[in-house]
Design goal:
This protein has a single domain, classed as Double Stranded RNA Binding Domain (2-Layer Sandwich). The chain contains 5 helices and 7 strands, in the order H-E-E-H-E-E-E-H-E-H-H-E. A 7-stranded mixed β-sheet has the order 3-2-4-5-6-1-7.
Length: about 230
């Protein structure tokens, strides 16, 4: 029996000697894998941060009447419309400057083929509702829990819109306006205020076309309008 016990003790010691290096190797590999996973995440996070700092999102929608094909060379008259708001009239000279910078043929109403009406608006949209309640013990309910009061709060987002509506000059003259193209770009109102050229040009780029997509616009420094 003593001989068997010595053999078993020898086997246990041998196994420990073999297992210890193996355990260290496994633990080291696990630590290395964990570090590698963290390192893989860091570039993605950095890239996302860089991209978000260099661009901003906008929703762009344009619609064209297939019976008409307005092009940049066509003479066009830009206006804020009869029932314009202060925001519309503030946006009009900015749009006119970008149309001219992009090579559009701006003329007066009488010599125009098209009339582009400029619109500018901010709107607030309810995106969700949160509720907060105070839970109390009620003796009338046999000690059961009840809600003492509930307060709800709407979660909102504010969006800024620039809208260009292109009408036939002839139809406008006759008092029966015919819209042949419309473009709308929606983004953070601060971006329209701080980078109007970038936002307006993205909309003008789709002039006379059908387009609908979420786009990213660069956050570069703009020259000030004169």
């Amino acid at each position: 029996m003593q001989h068997i016990a010595q053999i078993l003790l020898f086997l246990v010691i041998s196994l420990r000697q073999v297992y210890a290096p193996l355990r260290d190797t496994i633990e080291k590999e696990h630590r290395t894998m964990a570090i590698n996973r963290k390192l893989e995440v860091v570039p993605a996070l950095l890239l996302g941060t860089i991209l978000s700092a260099c661009s901003f999102n906008a929703k762009l929608i344009t619609r064209e009447d297939p019976a008409y094909v307005p092009i940049k060379a066509d003479p066009v008259f830009a206006t804020a419309g009869v029932q314009s708001t202060i925001q519309d009239r503030q946006m009009l000279p900015l749009v006119k400057q970008e149309l001219e910078a992009e090579g559009f043929n701006l003329v007066d109403f009488d010599h125009a083929k098209w009339v582009v009406i400029v619109g500018r608006d901010d709107r607030t949209v309810v995106t969700g509702t949160t509720a907060h309640g105070l839970v109390v013990a009620s003796g009338l309910l046999g000690g059961a829990l009840g809600v003492g009061s509930i307060h709800t709060k709407n979660e909102t987002e504010t969006y800024g819109d620039i809208v260009l509506s292109l009408l036939s000059q002839e139809s406008e003259k006759q008092g029966d306006p015919l819209e042949v193209w419309q473009g709308q770009i929606t983004t953070d109102p601060d971006q329209i205020l701080e980078r109007p050229k970038t936002v307006i040009r993205a909309l003008i780029d789709q002039y006379g076309k059908n387009f609908e997509d979420d786009i990213k616009l660069p956050k570069h420094q703009e020259d000030k309008y004169q």
